Amino acid sequence: MKKRFLLLVSIILVIALSVPTVWAADNSGMIVVDGKEYVISQKPVNMNGTLMVPLRDVFEALGADVAWDAEKSLVLLSSDQYNMEVKPNSYFAVYNDETIKMSVKAQIMDGKIVIPLDLLKQMKAIKLVNYDVSTYKVMITTSKAYAQKDGKDTTEDDNTSNSLTYQQALEIALENSYDLKQAKISLEQSEDNRDDTGKKFGYSYPTGVSGANTDNDLYATVIGLNKADIALETAKKQIGITEEKLSYNVLMNYYEVLKKINNYELSKLSLQKAKFERDIMDIKYRTGLASSFEKKQAEKSYKDAELNLQIAEKSISDQQLAFNNLLEVDKNREFELVDQPKLEKSEMDEKMLEQHVARMISDSITVWLAEQNVKIAELNEKLYVYNSSSSTGTYKSAQLDVDKAKYSAKQTKSDLADNIRSIYYSIKQIEDQYEIYQQNLVTAQDTLELTRLKYDQGMATDSQLLDAEYNVAQIKKLLFEESVNHELKKIVLAKPWVG
To answer: CA 243, CA 211: separation in Å to the nearest integer?
Structure first.
């Protein structure tokens, strides 16, 4: 009996979605999409203050494909901008993997599936939705048409597109970077200085240089040539390091903007919860079920949530400004950041770690500079000239300078090795914590799905639904932040000099 009933429901829904529309002159309405008019099979219906419109007519006017999934008993909507699922007799629709709550359930009316107009207002692909009661016209402006009208159509100009990947952001930063330009100028200066110093010896080191037999000019020139070589090599390395640091900083700031946006979305949910709880407490107070203290506490929580939302909104603007400053672009330019962090576990084990430590010590410019200081100190000792103005201090002091430089180089290597190991174990901790959050998310999503089913059946309250949605959003935020931390630390592990 139950199977027959389900079969009958599916047949009715298939008919509702597949039968060609029959226009009824006395009941037809109008939908206007970006200035173009379409007749819809029935006028919007006011259901307890909510306008209900025919799903197929509206979405076909929007250019979407409409299909019925008999197995899941839901409507599938697809376009080049979104994929969407709407289930009859449910408050919830899925829009590009995000769940939207409608004010009224999608339902069957006069053989057609109808949806509340507020569903359209929550879609990112739609900018404006209005309804003219006198003409029964639903007027829709898509986000794409709105951008074109506002002079912001960027479909043919990649340089002004609002959509921005991390790689695109990095290319902009590399092109505009003041620090990188300065590093390249420093390289030119170092090359010029090395050429000038090298001319004294025909671009090579003198032979036969030894201790007290070395005159003052020769001593100074040899030391100067060594320092010029070090400065030149440092300038060459500095360009690569500047690019790598910029790459890291762009990614960090890119993700920081996304983190602020996530915080803002969570703050909006917090405000919804606080508002609902305040309204319930107000009702309880007026019916004698809550004290004035409880009412004041609920009001305070709501005010705090309002303030937190304002702070979260401002933090987005501040971070976007910092990001634009890093890219050295117009401070008012707005970007839609499209890349998301993805946690990919490190394949490095402890044996590989020690090999990596040795390699990083070999590649580190800080270690290299420390080793060059040792060479300069040893050269100063070797070329020390007694009773000469070219040699400062005593010979014993020159020997001690060598010891100090060697100790400093050794300590630099040790500190770098300890730092790399610390980052490695931090990455492993993040990976363990991420797995815990993933498990928590599965549980929270199952709870949310069950709460939504109960809500559709009138067995769950708005408060329970908000709590379940908030828990999922909070865990997703934690997963996002751990993914960001993990990705940034993996970069620092591979290139310790950028962090």
So the answer is: 42
Q: What is the pLDDT along the chain (499 residues), one digit of tens a residue?
A: 444 444 444 544 444 444 333 333 456 788 999 999 998 888 888 888 899 999 999 999 999 999 999 999 999 999 999 999 999 999 999 999 899 999 999 999 888 899 999 999 999 999 999 988 888 889 999 988 887 776 555 444 444 458 899 999 999 999 999 988 888 888 888 777 777 766 665 545 454 444 444 455 666 667 777 777 887 887 888 888 999 999 999 999 999 999 999 999 999 999 999 999 999 999 999 999 999 999 999 999 999 999 999 999 999 999 999 999 999 999 999 999 999 999 999 999 999 999 999 999 999 989 999 998 998 888 888 777 554 555 567 888 888 999 999 999 999 999 999 999 999 999 999 999 999 999 999 999 999 999 999 999 999 999 999 999 999 999 999 999 999 999 999 999 999 999 8
Q: Which ranges in the chain are annotated with CATH 1.20.1600.10?
A: 170-498
- d(CA 162, CA 164) in angstroms, rounded, equals 6
Q: Which two tokens stand for residue 18?
A: 């597949």
Q: How many whole angstroms separate alpha carbon 436 and alpha carbon 429?
A: 11
Note the CATH number of domain 2-144: 3.30.457.10
Residues of the chain with CATH 3.30.457.10: 2-144
Q: Which amino acid is at 229?
A: D
Tell me 160's DSSP state. G
Between CA 16 and CA 133 the distance in angstroms is 26
DSSP H or E stretch at residue 314: helix 292-327
**Strand boundaries in 323-371, DSSP class E:** 336-337
- C-alpha 399/C-alpha 391 separation (Å) is 13
CATH fold, domain 170-498, is: Outer membrane efflux proteins (OEP) (1.20.1600)
Largest CA distance in the chain: 114
Q: What is d(CA 324, CA 322) in angstroms, rounded to the nearest whole number?
A: 5
Pairing state between β 29-33 and 137-142:
parallel
Residue type present at position 358: A
